[in-house]
Specification:
Order of helices and strands: HEEEHEHEEEEHH
Strand order of the largest sheet: 3-2-1-4-5-8-7-6
Structural class: alpha+beta
Distance between the termini: 28 Å
Oligomer: single chain
Length: 232
Amino acid sequence: MPIPADWPTTEAQALAEQERLRPLVQAVDDGPGERLIAGVDVAYDDDHDLVVAAAVLLDRDTLDVVEEATAVGRIAFPYVPGLLAFRELPAVLDALAALTRTPDTVVCDGYGLAHPRRLGLASHLGVLTGLRTLGVAKTPFTFHHREPDADRGSWTPLTDPATGEEVGRAVRTRAGVKPVYVSVGHRIGLDTAVRTTLDLARRYRLPETTRHADSLCRRALADALRTRTPSN
């Protein structure tokens, strides 16, 4: 898939775009009940300038896979911490567009408001598409938190050390297992984002949306590399 012609190509352009989009984020619940929830994830091969995104649509009640899609493209932006959305979003948008049904919510493997400029991938994706989004990350990035209690469902605020602002929550999805880091993306409140994450993480630390999307994009990347690499 081609990279959009107006996509930022420099760090200065990307920073300016984040500042432009940040006021458009809606950090409150907006929309009907959620039945179809998508997970999105991305895999790279920098040596081959290749990125593969996966979108997997699940039924919230059963956690069954309803539909899945992938998109293959060139890497759209160099690796710069805090600007990963510019690397990943073109392929993610293509994968979501390939679904025949529109998700009620999209769960991103990354950050939303838990971002230095309050516009991580989940928020950026939500503003661009109008979809309800949230971020579930594996690490707290640059933010602080106390360790939640050991019980499943326990959480503590994830705060910006510079301002004290709550930007997300460290959430224990399995008893005694290290937490995940949940933040608002767009059109969702933090309480709902935490509740949705727990609903999707009934057996494992990570939500089923993330687990399925991660597996699919890795398989699709391997397939793409096989088709591009001449056999011996």
